[in-house]
Design goal:
Blueprint: E1 3-5, H1 15-19, E2 24-26, E3 32-34, H2 43-52, E4 58-60
Antiparallel strand pairs: 1-4, 2-3
């Protein structure tokens, strides 16, 4: 399952990386990115990251 991080909204707080570093990392612009798709094992952690994002920059992709 793919995840999208809106680079225009992301403030680079790193919260998502702390919650699920299997999917999220900081890029060269100090913004979060989803570098791996979610799987059955980390789907709950990804949802926690989505729910915890202070600027709602993360969403599931269709």
């Amino acid at each position: 399952m793919k995840i999208k991080v809106d680079q225009n909204l992301c403030i680079g707080c790193g919260l998502c990386c702390g919650i699920c570093n299997e999917v999220f990392r900081m890029n060269e612009h100090e913004k979060a990115e989803a570098y791996q798709p979610a799987n059955d094992d980390n789907q709950s952690a990804v949802q926690d990251a989505i729910d915890s994002c202070p600027v709602s920059a993360i969403a599931w992709e269709d």
